[in-house]
Write a structure and sequence with these properties.
Shape: elongated
GO cellular component, one term: postsynapse
Protein name: P2X purinoceptor
Largest sheet: 8 strands, mixed
Family: Belongs to the P2X receptor family.
Distance between the termini: 20 Å
Function: Receptor for ATP that acts as a ligand-gated ion channel.
Organism: Oncorhynchus kisutch (Coho salmon)
Number of helices: 13
Oligomer: single chain
């Protein structure tokens, strides 16, 4: 279609086909009802009518508890929050010491390196002065000294005596840390809604916080947690975990609904272990670090080295808030309207299956689908006297039209012109008895001709007979004479179409009768052709009509004039 400014003011819409069927109508509304129910359930369940925002939060933790341990060669040590909290673990984390290895009275000096970190030697030549690596406790002096009764190692300058214990004691020395408590303060904000809240709820009083403790069943909102309960909620054993340490995740989830009377915004706590707990599955199990306490003894600085094992608690906050938004509701409704096409797809598929007869399926397909052929392709329709249907074929420039395979088959549809011609014949009282006419076979019958009355042609689209099998030619039928060649009938049809036309003798009259005869044949044998197809007459019928209504010179039309085989819309081919 050419591009014009007026095209901008045009409106296009879809063409609908309405099928009067109680069964299909009931099926359609049933499917639509199921789809509507599904859409409503999903909208309410997932709150698709809400606008959402993600949480922004900050976390602080305050641990309380005191433990008393009795260490060999050290004595009793009281551990308070300063001692067992260890160094800062970063954002949203805190650490609690649960076990220690103590190496006391270390001083700067020279001592043998501890295997396997130290090199086992025999003489001083096996040691390199000034050598060290990432596993060394000090710098080698170049001397090979006695480590025990059986081995010698390279001497190092280090804090002596060097830490020699590898495995932490069992049970853990600070197993009583199980009863320590931690207050977790979590402040959250949803920026899009300008909504703020914290896990210490407004209704919580000071007296309540002094006596409450988190319990999944009896008090799930209390922000004060017993460490043993946290580890238990993570499905771990505190006594076992305290030996080598580990990492526990404390998850706080905020799932908030900010809609009016449905407003609800409370934290939900969950716990899980984050590190690998099986020692035999990892090279470095648990979690540990070292720290020292320094003192001066008789003017010499010395220290007590502690290798501390403990549990690190990582607080992770997740959250999402939703609030009603008319824009989100419209977007959701618009996105779900496409679900209703499933009803059309299913019913169209149902009609195309064996649930319906072949005639009903074809009739529905013709009403629903309107085929538009490419102008470069020419779609023809042909009819054979020994078949009761019409073939639709593609025009071929190489293959005889008689031999082209059909792309579809359609039943014959009566044409009003044909019916009016039949009425005219009956009114005149003609005796319609099929008596063979005296039409002699052609002596130069081509190979594609099966009736014996066709003439040869060099054009493949003109090589068409009236039959698909050998037999009588349609031009020998009495009806052919009465309906196609009868001059009184053709004149009556011409006057019916153009009441004021002049039918005086002459070339114009012969041409009009000839064209009317073509139309009568098409109406008789093909009727209303399928959409976008061009009816084609067989060669025998065309030449029989031209013999009856020749040109003014009295001669038959030349072979090059066979192009009127295509009676309608020939210009498209």
């Amino acid at each position: 279609m050419p591009c014009k400014l007026l095209n901008l003011c045009e409106y296009e819409t879809h063409k609908l086909v309405r099928i009067q069927s109680v069964r299909l109508g009931s099926l359609k509304w049933t499917f639509n009802g199921v789809i509507l129910m599904f859409i409503c359930i999903m909208m309410l369940w997932n709150k698709e009518y809400q606008e959402h925002d993600y949480v922004v939060s900050s976390v602080t933790a305050k641990v309380k508890g005191v433990a008393l341990t009795s260490l060999p060669d050290v004595g009793d040590i009281v551990w308070d929050v300063v001692d067992y909290s260890g160094p800062s673990q970063g954002k949203n984390s805190f650490f609690v010491v649960t076990n220690v290895i103590v190496t006391k009275k270390q001083r700067q000096g020279k001592c043998p390196e501890v295997p396997p970190y130290g090199k086992v030697c025999r003489t001083d030549e096996d040691c390199v002065k000034g050598f060290w690596d990432q596993h060394s406790h000090g710098v080698q002096t170049g001397a090979c000294v006695k480590f025990d009764v059986t081995r010698k190692t390279c001497e190092v300058s280090a804090w002596c005596p060097i830490e020699s214990k590898k495995k932490p004691p069992k049970p853990a020395l600070l197993a009583s840390a199980e009863n320590f408590t931690v207050l977790i303060k979590n402040n959250i904000r949803f920026p899009n809604f300008n909504f703020m809240r914290r896990n210490i709820l407004p209704e919580m009083t000071e007296s309540y916080l002094k006596r409450c403790q988190f319990n999944r069943h009896t008090d799930s909102s209390c922000p004060i947690f017993r460490l043993g309960d946290i580890v238990k909620e993570a499905k771990e054993n505190f006594s076992e975990m305290a030996v080598e340490g580990g990492v526990i995740g404390i998850q706080i989830k905020w799932d908030c609904n900010l809609d009016g009377f449905l407003r609800n915004c409370l934290p939900k706590y969950s716990f899980r272990r984050l590190d690998e707990k099986e020692s035999n599955r990892t090279l470095y199990p648990g979690l540990s670090f070292r720290f020292a306490r320094y003192q001066t003894e008789k003017g010499v600085e010395e220290r007590t080295l502690f290798k501390a094992f403990g549990i690190r608690f990582d607080v992770m906050v997740f959250g999402e808030a939703g609030k009603f938004s008319i824009i989100q509701l419209i977007i959701f409704i618009g996105s779900t309207l496409s679900y209703y096409t499933l009803t059309t797809v299913f019913i169209d598929w149902l009609i195309g299956t064996s649930c319906y007869s072949k005639e009903a399926r074809q009739n529905y397909s013709e009403k629903k689908v309107e085929s538009v052929q490419d102008r470069k392709q020419c779609i023809l329709c042909v009819s054979f006297v020994d078949e009761n249907h019409i073939r639709v074929v593609k025009k071929s420039h190489k293959k005889s039209l008689q031999q082209v395979k059909p792309i579809s088959v359609h039943p014959c549809k009566d044409d009003t012109g044909h019916l009016s011609a039949m009425v005219g014949v009956l009114q005149k009282g003609n005796n319609i008895i099929d008596k063979p006419s005296q039409v002699l076979p052609r002596p130069n019958r081509p190979a594609w001709c099966l009736c014996g009355c066709c003439l040869p042609s060099t054009h493949p689209q003109e090589q068409l007979c009236c039959r698909q099998s050998i037999g009588r030619c349609i031009t020998t039928s009495t009806l052919f004479e009465q309906l196609v060649l009868s001059r009184p009938l053709l004149e009556a049809v011409l006057l019916y179409r153009e009441p004021l036309s002049d039918l005086t003798e002459g070339e114009q009259r012969i041409a009009a009768l000839r064209n009317c005869s073509y139309r009568q044949y098409i109406s008789w044998r093909i009727g209303a052709p399928p959409r976008e197809s061009i009816p084609v007459m067989p060669s025998c019928s065309v030449w029989r009509i031209r013999e009856e209504y020749p040109s003014q010179e009295g001669e038959l039309l030349s072979q090059q004039a066979v192009t009127p085989l295509y009676l309608f819309n020939h210009s498209h081919c």
